[in-house]
Amino acid sequence: xxxxxxxxxxxxxxxxxxxxxxxxxxxxxxxxxxxxxxxxxxxxxxxxxxxxxxxxxxxxxxxxxxxxxxxxxxxxxxxxxxxxxxxxxxxxxxxxxxxxxxxxxxxxxxxxxxxxxxxxxxxxxxxxxxxxxxxxxxxxxxxxxxxxxxxxxxxxxxxxxxxxxxxxxxxxxxxxxxxxxxxxxxxxxxxxxxxxxxxxxxxxxxxxxxxxxxxxxxxxxxxxxxxxxxxxxxxxxxxxxxxxxxxxxxxxxxxxxxxxxxxxxxxxxxxxxxxxxxxxxxxxxxxxxxxxxxxxxxxxxxxxxxxxxxxxxxxxxxxxxxxxxxxxxxxxxxxxxxxxxxxxxxxxxxxxxxxxxxxxxxxxxxxxxxxxxxxxxxxxxxxxxxxxxxxxxxxxxxxxxxxxxxxxxxxxxxxxxxxxxxxxxxxxxxxxxxxxxxxxxxxxxxxxxxxxxxxxxxxxxxxxxxxxxxxxxxxxxxxxxxxxxxxxxxxxxxxxxxxxxxxxxxxxxxxxxxxxxxxxxxxxxxxxxxxxxxxxxxxxxxxxxxxxxxxxxxxxxxxxxxxxxxxxxxxxxxxxxxxxxxxxxxxxxxxxxxxxxxxxxxxxxxxxxxxxxxxxxxxxxxxxxxxxxxxxxxxxxxxxxxxxxxxxxxxxxxxxxxxxxxxxx
Length: 665
What we know:
By secondary structure, this protein is mostly beta strands. The strands form 7 sheets. The chain has a 7-stranded mixed sheet with strand order 1-31-32-30-29-40-39, with helices on one face. Helix 3 (454-464) crosses helix 4 (479-486). Mean pLDDT is 80; it is low at 1-31 and 556-561.
């Protein structure tokens, strides 16, 4: 049955360090902290506190305004260079590490060298194994005569590393930077690193509800907030037969239909100015509490704290107190008789007064953000109320008549991508996984159907059966009609020009969980404005970031009288800075208005592989004159794109649609 259309505004298994270890130093920290490394801007010129391999130096002066200024860590790309320092955290201390730094590269000769990637890792200082890590793709530097000693800078990089701390020993961590390369003259390229800040977060509590006895069922994996049944009550233990593959917490027995709940005592660790809560829930349609307030999780007192409700209209509802009233954020209707993944976050934007902050609250259902409210005053200080699961307020009302599983509370606001990742990682326990090994992705400039019709364009798209399509040159009022004609269930539009009515769209057969649209830089010469549309899409149970763009038009040094390729290169660099923050596989579709050998496409190699260059089959345009394409991030590939097509027979537009067939990870 077709879903209802929804519109929404090198891989290492471990790493071993060679060389000596530095002395330990310990600083006492709470559940969330900035883990400042010594001399993060390297201004002393000697890298004090850092251990390094021979081909790393600190005494070159750089001048990249707003990014890398003064002295930085310069790492030759020999393939074996590393730089590390111990941070004041243990392997089992935190779940999330957000590492911010500036990263650039430079060439020591006009002929250049190559850096494939700079790897950011957390290493266990005793076992010397990588706990978590991620590659920052650099690729071939764009070389010019002015690059020495300055750098072609990639600004403000951020890596989010997740650690299964329950599987780690209690050993200190090392923050580790290394590189890799593939060129024959790699030592002529240098990675430049500066301004490092690390923040770490943890789950304050995580109740997986997997135990076989009442006490083990209610255990908190952090060992700090074990739940207890309500006084004089008990809770259900076992698998209730409603679709999940393990035990869960159920609050109503088959007979005599008693209401249950559980709690843990008030703790200051729940009084956070920013927080996140996630849970799975099942509400049977045959149970009789529909139309009444039911509390999934509650931590509230005197118009302070929060509650996640199934409200009296049978909608999901996220309540936060401001000290004198409740801010009630109502989401979509509850879908009974199936597992639903519910998440709420509050993000502090500014202090308000004592015990209160002002910020943004968000509600998610099945990985998709359904509500966002800014300017909310939140009283985060709760001094005596218990933290309840399955019951509300005083612990004697608003019982949840259903099943609850895998409840997590974080002392930080998780971004939308992290929410989507948690959903993707846990969903196979609660839903039947999809099957399939490959899917098609298309990029298509349709010239707003002018050459034929929207229905004809839709027929071309449908004939290729893509999972996702990036569409350029489309009006906002054409998107839904095109989705219908192409048999695509989900879509999002991103305005770029003409007062917000013209731009780009992404169509999908799979749920679009998040989306954003941002303008791209342009000259002041009246050129049509351009934008980047980004969506997070769940395809066969995996999360993909799909972006779509249309770069500025014109042949270099022609057209408007400016160097149009210069502005396309500036726009591409802006796109790279945006998409570098995305974890997992990133797919960029677009009309790039740039040949394969021009600088804009050359710059894209920092993050992407042009799928045309690695495909086992090429149809139609052989590539040298093409301006449309599909780029996929380096972290996906072992020759995983297996086909490339350009449809030379379709006359529905003045562009060929470009299609790739991509292997699911």
